[in-house]
Amino acid sequence: MTDITWLGHAAFLVEGTSTSILIDPFLSGNPSANELPEGVRPDVIAVTHGHQDHFGDCLELARRFDSTVVAVAELGAYCESQGLTKVVRLNIGGAADIDGVRLHCVPAVHSSSVGPNRDYAGAPCGFVIAIDDLTIYHAGDTDVFTDMSLIGRRFDIDLALLPIGGTFTMDPDAALMALELLRPAEVTAMHFDTFPPIRQDVGAFADAVAKQGLADYRPMDQGTRTTLSGGGRT
Ligand code: NI
Ligand code: MN
User: Fold this and answer.
1) Is-contact 143 109, C-beta < 8 A?
2) pLDDT value for 33
């Protein structure tokens, strides 16, 4: 059984049978943030890029829970420079196998820097996560790009987590185009409404997804754990 909890913005907790993964843990200072559920100790913290609204509490949480951080090489090196020892550095096209979970690092069209001085943090990325019998794509911050069709060809995506806020990422119209390329079974929108510049009508997006028959829209209430049915599509 695999559970997923949206913690606000781009932060998600995925709890598999044996391994839990926290993605883009921006909790402190996030106006829409939710606390980690009681008793959860993430085994893995995966960070798509260095921007504070994604990197967030990575260092503090990794120290507190002795989590393994997965990030692009330069961002991983930054984590090590801040004292973390359990860091898996990878890069676009690579994958990491940790505790029975596979995290593929895939492209994202965005920028990346980390820390108060905006230090170089390597390329931004997305992750395709194979956990239990599910494949979850977290796009990170990105515009739509045609190579999403390769991601869709290579992976049978059960659930795509796509930004729709605009301004810093693709907007709902571009996210519909992304779905044409990715062809996931389900989609959930993220990275909207947290701040005024990324306000969007998520209901209208969900309606458009359904109307165009691109995927099943999976609504998520922040902080509410939901179970993803395993086994994918038939
Ligand atoms: Ni960003
Ligand atoms: Mn962002």
Assistant:
1) yes
2) 75
